[in-house]
Amino acid sequence: MAERGHDSASYAAASDIEEMELVHPKTFIGKYIWSQDAKVIAIQYAITATAIGLVALVLSILIRLQLGFPNAFSLVDPSNYLQYVTMHGMIMVVYLLTALLLGGFGNYLIPLMCGARDMVFPYLNMLSYWFYLASVLILVASFFVPGGPSGGGWTLYPPQVISQGTPGVDGGILLMLVSLSVFIIGFTMGGLNYVVTVLQARTRGMTLMRLPLTVWGIFMATVMALLAFPALLVAVLMTICDLLLGTSFFMPEMQTLGEQSSHEGGSPLLFQHLFWFFGHPEVYIVALPAFGIVSDLLATHARKNIFGYRMMVWAIIIIGVLSFIVWAHHMFVSGMNPYFGFLFATTTLIIAVPTAIKVYNWVLTLWRGNIHLSVPMLFAIGFLFTFVNGGLSGLFLGNVTVDVPLSDTYFVVGHFHMVMAVAPILVIFGAIYHWYPKVTGRMLDDRLGKVHFWVTFLGTYVIYFPMHFMGFAGVPRRYYAYGETAFIPDSVVTMNSVITVAAIIVSLAQVLFLFNLAWSYFRGRESGPNPWQATTLEWQTEHTPPRHGNFGDELPVVHRWAYDYSVPGAERDFIPQTVPHEGEERR
Amino acid sequence: MIISLVFLSLLMALFGGWLFSHSINVRPWEVPGGALGERPAAVTAPRVGLAVFLAVATSLFALTISAYMMRMEMGADWRSLPTPGLLWFNTALLVLGSLALQRAWGAARHGRRGELGIGLIAGGACSIAFVLGQGLVWWQLEAAGHYLAANPANAFFYLLTALHGLHLLGGLVVWARTLFRFRGGATPERLCGSVELCALYWHYLLVVWGILFMLVLST
């Protein structure tokens, strides 16, 4: 095929872009509460997600206090323990990570990085946030109903979740199911916006292959979420029918507390298929935005173009597609045809290929770069370590024969916290340190940031690394207390105490971070428009923080890709995307 | 899950092909040449938005149908539901609704206000009649003892018709807004976009209903 000039790809007509009518409210409520400005909506998402995330953090400390010092505190009873584990998992995965990465970073960065004035459907975008807030409030309400919140596990497995005796079966479980439905409806509204904005509202010159990888990551994650969340919605709606209306979609014939249940013939396995058809892509819905963001952090702070940009884009796409055909690896112990097990183990291991390509490319981006060990960079490098560690233990669990004995042990807890909790959270922290100056116009404090990084990074290793060994020793997860169990050695008991102390220290470091966010908002050093000397469009806005409409009277025109760092012969070590090439006319 | 996977592979193949055509031989780091192109005028944000939403809705229906097939095989308790004759009548109503909105779309494009109004009202009326008809089918089934919880075949029938009905009700909200604007004196040109989205959405829901109806008839 003939070489094609980069600019021959299709563009939005400038006239199309200018047509976007923005609502400019005058009142405080219109500007900051019922706002249709994607940047304000992003902040609303971020604050709500952080608030509910803090609840989940406190729950995790309660869980850890019980595990580390089983007889010292009487804060939780066995039912509470299951409820806190359930709520911690569900909040962290759905209400914090998904909402913050897509609703928070997606809303803030997509229009700015694409060169758009706002999202394409601002009203829908506003509704999306209010649905999200409603879903959070419904979930929080479940703490206050009789019987408390759901204790059926974040995976919502029937028949457990519907059976009498499960904590929260009186109301908490129903509230969680309703909350999830509302969340999914809200997310669909937001997701439509993110996808259509990337496709339709890019400014002149911003071709697909000039988009920063952050946008690619969020875009693909949104596409996946739009296709995967319906699986959860179907599963949730059918569970609600089983719970309230007595249908038997998932509920088999059972005897509960000596009584015959009214259900018959339902299949719990059917639920597992639907749940994991959503659940596995969900891992990548969280991971892909993190992959995208970390690529931009590494390139900017190493002053070097990203290695293998096109490979990185295609790796994002391939990971996204493959993640839809690996779901049954979560069900190896549920029982399945051995050939299916083989098939799903194979697809699972194949995902390692594009993922490894990404890791190599990140490392090669750092190779001979002019590495600035700024706080965002520290978090980005921390992510690389954590992600590789968590990813490698995933290779263990992807193999059926290794997964079966390790299933339901602390090895699994260690694995998914490394790869899905700590790794994306490190990126989120890095991203906040990176973009906070654009959001507020002030820098976050560097010393506090470094303390925050080192305590968080090293602390999480103290927490999760030993869990792998505990898993090898056969320590089962989800247990309230181990008592005098013969096969659990004393070293595990000691280790549990160490982990708990580390978890408390890491949590305190997050308080430091919150203090930094608040203090720097008022007292932080002024950042200027482009403190990291970055190339992408959000750093080239007329005002910092950008006003409603993002750019001045005219939208920027893009002349180059997002990674022109340390270009030989250039005056400075970065060239913004808006600067024309030599000899090229400014359009 | 085969049905869901086939749908997803088709979608991903389309997406991949489109992306391939935009990225093959494109070297973003090089100095560009050539003139600035324009995006095809037919590809507007509302149209793309509708297409993305239809993909999401298709995912929802494909997964529900997958669950239907799997549940049918998994439990030995499946007893097929008799098909009320009223469903044929309802189907005819939905076809008429779709045709009327298609007519309205044509009228809006050519600026024929009177015909647009008739098409809009007829389309909406047929759809409301369809929803009421589906309610009547539920009532008939209940009266004949085919309760929701009695059998998974019944439960799936109620679930599928409810999901389809809810999507149609969502469409009717947009339809009502369009009708309101029409009555407020908006010109056919200004309404054309909304009427077009309604018509396309109704055609989609007709196809979905056709598939669901065939599924119920054949199992």
From TrEMBL, chain A:
Alphabetic keyword roster: Electron transport, Heme, Iron, Membrane, Metal-binding, Respiratory chain, Transmembrane, Transmembrane helix, Transport
Gene3D superfamilies in the cross-refs: Cytochrome c oxidase-like, subunit I domain
PROSITE patterns listed in its UniProt record: COX1, COX1_CUB
Family, per entry: Belongs to the heme-copper respiratory oxidase family.
Highest taxon listed in the record's lineage: Bacteria
Domain Cytochrome oxidase subunit I profile: 28-559
PANTHER family: CYTOCHROME C OXIDASE SUBUNIT 1
Compartments reported by the entry: Membrane
Annotated source species: Halomonas flagellata
Pfam family, one: COX1
This protein's name: Cbb3-type cytochrome c oxidase subunit I
Positions of transmembrane segments: 45-67, 87-110, 122-145, 173-196, 217-245, 274-299, 311-333, 339-363, 375-398, 410-433, 453-475, 495-519
